[in-house]
Amino acid sequence: MSTPITHQQYWRGQRTRIVLLLIVWAIVAFGLSIFGVEALNTVSLGGIPLGFWMAQQGSIFIFVLLILIYAITSDRAERAAGLQETADSTTQAGEDH
Amino acid sequence: MSIQAWTWVTVGITFAAYLYIGYRSRVRSTRGFYVAGQGVPAIANGAATAADWMSAASFISMAGLISFMGYDGSVYLMGWTGGYVLLALLLAPFLRKYGKYTVPDFVAERYYSQAARIVAAICAIFVSFTYVAGQMGGVGVAFSRFLEVPFEIGVVIGMVIVAFFAVLGGMKGITYTQVAQYCVLIFAYTIPAIAIALVLTSNPVPQLAIGEVLPKLNAIQTDLGLDPYSNPFARLDMLNVFCVTVCLMVGTAGLPHVIVRFYTTKSVRDARWSAFYALLFIAILYTTAPAVAMFAKYYILNQFAEVGTQGFTQLDWVQNWAATGLIDIDAINASDGTAAALLANINRDIIVLATPEIAGLSAFVVALVAAGGLAAALSTASGLLLVISSSLAHDIYGNIINPQASDKKRLLVGRIMIFAAVVLAGLLGIFPLGFVAEVVAFAFGLAAASFFPILVLGVFWKRANKYGAIAGMSVGLAFTFIMIVLMRAQNVLGLDEPIIDSFLGINAQGIGIIGMLLNFGLTIGVSLATPAPPMDVQRMVEQIRYPRVINDEELEEHLSHDAH
After folding, report:
1. How far apart are CA B3 and CA B362, in angstroms?
2. Given Cys at both, which of B162, B247, B261, B497 links B512, Cβ 3.0 to 4.6 Å?
3. Beta partners for A49?
4. Shortest CB distance from A64 goes to which of B35, B279, B407?
5. Is residue B486 situated within a structural domain?
6. In a domain? residue B538
């Protein structure tokens, strides 16, 4: 098990995680697939120019992976901070009417 | 059996399944009606989100667009998937924690203003209506091509089906029907793609088969005097590829019918996981689509290279589609005989529907594609109709007009509104307004410029206040809307030419990026110049950042840290 953290550390950790994942997201989507596409196209990946492959296949796989990493690491941080939900501590719609 | 007989069978079976599921999921409370009782498991919500998201445009039109655009078609592939990363990281868990019914609910409470609620509800209705009219039109097209019933009858059949499960089951009925629709549409999309991959190459996985097809496609394009397929920036320059991609991504994360999906999960944790499943399920189709695009282009150009212009127009599948007017044989025969002229006279929308026929696959597979197209159109339409109904019945009626209404009465108004929305959407499908079709393509720019910035700042910046949000939302939306009208004046205003061609080189599809920046800048600037939001709003923002409910004692402790 991971070491316990405070609520403040949880939120700081989430913010850092979100920023890092979004930096990877931007590099993949814009850096490699748009601005760097011509340079990457000089490399071939199984018959496909790499830049073109990134734009039409690779970037999508990486997007899925980024959300997976976020879901797994958030689960872990949430447990470490004692913030996981139970049936009684989940927000329910309709409480106010 | 003929294609038509098989289509009746596949459409009949799938529609019966939707009706059965809709009947089994009927609800009795507003919580069930608007957010499916917040009891949808993450994986089911992921599948429902994927079906909700992938419309007739994704299913029928996207591969065709990419086929004709080559690399530049990547704007749709990355734009309509990359937005989920923004949604999953920046919005979904926090809006689930907030835990009410609609996006305007959040806007109204976060920005402590019923005026903000009305603006948000109107934006939601406007964006959703433009979108849903296109879906109903798509249902009509699918019926008239494959079942040979009149277009209007097709739209009416679609309306009856959607009305049945949406009025009875609300969000719950819609969600479980969408799970079934996802299964239908993903089979209908991947089975023909795998079959074609096996015909063209030795590899059944379309995502891998493109390694063999692309070099051949590039070679044949070069032989026929076209740019190689994978060459970037042939139709859009680098600036516009970037701007359109950003606009579609941010717009995806700002569309109310997508955001509200994450209100229906059991917990905050499930909201994160259902965003993952949603994008995983979407990615199956979105990585297959560019393969279908390449296969179709290769087939068409290869047949053209073998038999020439005259022979091409004699092909069976070309004759079939010429009858629908989507391939213009006379124009092809009268043209100069180049590949470019050939492509200009083939409607891009037929690529997905015609590829199984071009590749000579069995009638059953062709019929399956028709059922898939209908599933895609109906699932998206139902999700949008729920947003329209909840904006009217919950936000406008329940919160502004009659806040004292009982749950029973709210539910009744919700059902009436969704029925009215179905009828109106069907009428817009049968009698399309020219400007509606034009605006659909720009719904993303409008969502990017209105909702996304104030939602993200609402979660991550406690200092954002109502003056900032109202200024940001209205200026962002107005700027984007006006720019689109000016750049598309020939379609929207009926002028002979656009009033301006572009703004700093950015075209109408990408202009939402400027609207979004204006919105961010104004929300921040105006907020800083005006008083901070009240304490209870700051408490609420602190509360939604943590998965489980934080008690008052813990909340005080959090806020005391803030002060330092």
Report:
1. 8
2. B247
3. A44
4. B279
5. no
6. no
CB A95: neighbour CB atoms within 10 A?
9
- Contact partners, residue B308, CB within 8 Å, separation at least 6: B337
Instruction: Indicate the residue type of B444.
Output: F
Q: Please list, in sequence order, all residues whose beta carbon lies within 8 angstroms of the beta carbon of residue B389, skipping any fewer than 6 positions away.
A: B166, B414, B417, B418, B421
Encoded amino acid at B534, one letter: P
What sign does the dihedral B349-B53-B285-B83 (CA atoms) show?
A: positive
Residues 196-225 in B contacting A (C-alpha not used; CB under 8 Å)? 207-208, 210-212, 214-215
CA dihedral sign, ordered B456, B458, B460, B463:
positive
CATH number, domain with residue B182: 1.20.1730.10
A48: helix, strand or coil: strand
Question: Could you state, in order of their start, the residue ranges of all structural domains in chain A?
Answer: 22-82
Q: Domain residues for B228?
A: 3-432
Instruction: Report angle CA B432, B434, B439 to the nearest 5 degrees.
Output: 100
Q: Is the dihedral of CA B190, B196, B201, B202 positive or negative?
A: positive
Q: Regarding beta strands A48-49 and A44-45, do their DSSP bridges make them parallel or antiparallel, or are they unpaired?
A: antiparallel
The length of chain A in residues reads 97
Report how far residue B299's alpha carbon sits from residue A10's, in angstroms, rounded to the nearest whole number. 54
Q: Which residue of B has its CA nearest to A93?
A: B100
Put simply, the answer to whether A7 touches B287 (Cβ < 8 Å) is no
pLDDT digits (tens, 9 = 90+) for A20-62: 999 999 999 999 999 998 889 898 888 889 999 999 999 999 9
Query: Minimal Cα–Cα distance from A60 to chain B, Å?
Result: 7
Interface touch A48/B96, C-beta < 8 Å? no
Q: Structurally, how many domains does chain B consist of?
A: 1
Eight-class DSSP state of B488: T
The interaxial angle of helices B151-200 and B350-358, nearest 10 deg, is 50
B137-174 pLDDT per residue, tens: 777 777 776 777 777 888 888 888 888 877 877 888 88
Give tens-digit pLDDT for B485-495.
888 777 666 67
Prediction ipTM score: 0.93
Return d(Cα B147, Cα B184) in angstroms, integer. Answer: 18
pLDDT of residue A2: 64
Contact B161, B174 (CB under 8 A): no
* Helix ranges restricted to H, B25-86: 30-35, 42-53, 56, 62-69, 74-86
Is residue B438 situated within a structural domain? no
Query: Which residues from B are below 8 Å from A52, CB to CB?
Result: 71, 214, 230, 232
- Dist. CA B115–CA B134, nearest whole Å: 30
Give the Cα separation of B468 and B426 in Å (integer): 38
Structure token digits, residue B284? 């199956």
- pLDDT of residue B348 exceeding 50: yes
Query: Residues B75, B211: contact at Cβ < 8 Å?
Result: no
Residue whose C-alpha is closest to residue A2's, from A71, A77, A69, A74: A77
Residue B348: strand, helix, or coil: coil
**Angle, alpha carbons A20-A21-A23 (nearest 5°):** 65
